[in-house]
Amino acid sequence: MDSHEHDVPVNRPSLVRPYSLTSGRTQPAVELALEALVQALPGARNKHWELSDVEAAILALCGESPSVAEIAARAVIPLGVARVLVADLVASGHVKVLATLRDDSTDVERRELIERVLSGLRNI
User: Fold this and answer.
1) CA 105, CA 100: separation in Å to the nearest integer?
2) C-alpha neighbours within 13 Å on the C-beta side of residue 25
3) How many Å apart are CA 58 and CA 40, to the nearest integer?
4) Do you know which Pfam families this protein is assigned to (predicted)?
5) Pick from 71, 70, 64, 113: which is nearest to 88 by CA?
């Protein structure tokens, strides 16, 4: 066995149970669509010390305006947990949700959203 084999990081399952990240909550405080784009607010970095490690990781990801689904994938947390934590960050003023589609959205707006989602998925 080569001594350098121990230097390679191994993806291991988290020992933290998902429900402990949300204090057992399963419903987000703010309704969030999976495709909703989330953006960090300018002053959020100044309040970084208030956040847990997972929330801080989510906030760092929000500099690129990812979707809620992308946040879950990149942070390696269940989608439901991501929705609750992102909603908490919205409620606390760390991030904002960018406008997504409405019932009266045009075909062009719908196509642009699909293209953004596909682009985000390719980047994962």
Assistant:
1) 9
2) 15
3) 9
4) DUF742
5) 71
Residue whose token pair is 């495709």: 35
Average pLDDT over every residue of 54-81: 89
pLDDT digits over 71-116, tens only?
A: 998 988 888 889 999 999 999 889 999 877 777 888 888 888 778 7
**Structural domain includes residue 6:** no
In a domain, 31, yes or no: yes
Three-state SS across the chain?
Answer: CCHHHHHCCCCCCCCCCHHHHCCCCCCCCCCCCCCCEEEECHHHHHHHHHCCHHHHHHHHHHHHCCEHHHHHHHHCCCHHHHHHHHHHHHHCCCEEECCCCCCCCCHHHHHHHHHHHHHHHHHC
Residue 10 maps to a domain: no
- Residue 95 CA to residue 39 CA, distance in Å, equals 5
Q: Give the separation between CA 7 and CA 82, rounded to whole angstroms.
A: 30
Rounded Cα gap, residues 39 and 96, in angstroms:
5
